[in-house]
Amino acid sequence: MMAILSVSPPTAPGMWQLLPRSLLVVPLLVGSVAAADTSPLEILLPPHVVVAWREDPRPAADAPAGVEVPQGRRVSRRAQRRSTRRRPLDEMPYETVPIRPPLRDSPQATEFVPLAPFAESTATAVETDTTLTSPALTSPVPAAADATGITTHRDQPYGQPESGQPAHARQRFDLYLPAGCNAGGMPLVVWIHGDTWRDGSKADCPLIWLASEGYAVASIGYRLSDSAVFPAQLDDCRAAIAEIERNAEVWGIDRDRVAVAGSGAGGHLAALVGLTSHPTASVATSADRVGDTVFPRIAAVCAVAAPVSLTTLGPEQDRPGSPASRLVGGPLPEFREAAQRASPVTYVSADDPPVLILHGASDDTVPSKQAVEFAATLKAANVDTTLVILPNVGHRPGLDLGTPGGQALVSFLDRVLGPGVRPDSVPRP
């Protein structure tokens, strides 16, 4: 059953003109926050900024209240720049925008998906034999169990199994396994990185904590759009997953319980991998092959803040230099057919695996309308669909253990894949 909530972020048109030219905005490295009562200045600026007023050569009447304006001869702009470079920022007068309450204190998304209380993992470090080696004999980084009891296999190549080396430096994956799970049969969650198709790394994986919950976690790399246009990214993701499934017995993975997840561009690719996967004809093989295309088995999809219809993203993405335009090789309006081929919504069919859609209601990069319409299209095709719209959340919902996004994800995985295989054989409460 699907329920949808639409939330519109506050706007303040025309207010930018009220800011003085001497305003310096310095972002602070802090976590996500939830919206609260805001002043006009807070509406105009991103959360958590420092507003610093440097020496302003204009008349005192133009300066904000409480700011001392130097008197006497007007200082040239060149002299101002020299003075600024010599003067530490912490000696300058500033005022701080009030900090809003953190997101984790805000109501969870229980209006959309009933989430049972989720206890933090009780898994402890487990003594294990870490002699398990990669199927690729040239693995540059040996496996090792860290303090949390997770065994890591880094930089495993895919794409060129006969030579053992990938054709491109990004055609590698990292694999995180619960230490001590030697019996096999673990479900696998594959993470696809990237906010756009030109950034990110397989090292950026927010789901490693799932390995402490009995899931195998893989983070895969792929060629970025500055080196290859679509469908190279999709081909790489398929090939990486197929390589992992091909050695499922070695890794102790159940190839029939594979989920793929990602956020932003990664969510877009995860949806494409899941919706274009073909059912396998035999359990003896890990993937179907049609010509040069490999179709791995996918049992579930999690798309977070994902652009699923490139042709309706809006004028900002229609520009030639936008991430979506660079992905397909040119401006979206001119490459409309290519944009449709790269849109997950084009491939919705009744045999698609279950799909979890996570989206922030205040996302100003990928409109939440994309998630709502995607869910409606899947539901119309009788696909098992779960839509979670997170109130007061922007483009990058948190997926850490204990966040609403993380709770929704693990609840979805437990339902559609079955719970993970814990080393201590303790079932999830």
How is this structure best summarized?
This protein is α/β, with parallel strands linked by helices.
Give a structural overview.
There is one protein chain. This protein is an alpha/beta fold. The chain folds into two domains: about 15-105, no CATH class; about 110-310 and about 345-415, 3-Layer(aba) Sandwich (Rossmann fold). It contains ten helices and 14 strands. A nine-stranded mixed sheet has the order 4-5-6-8-7-9-12-13-14, sandwiched between helices. Strands 1-2-3 form a three-stranded antiparallel sheet, with no helix packed on it. Helix 9 links the parallel strand 13 (about 355-360) and strand 14 (about 385-390). The longest helix is centred in the middle third of the chain and has 15 residues, at about 230-245. The two termini are about 25 Å apart.
Q: Percentage of helical residues?
A: 10-25%
Class inferred from helices and paired strands: alpha/beta
Strand order of the largest sheet: 4-5-6-8-7-9-12-13-14
Question: Strand tally, please?
Answer: 14
Name of the CATH superfamily of the largest domain: Alpha/Beta hydrolase fold, catalytic domain
Q: Write down the CATH class of the largest domain.
A: Alpha Beta
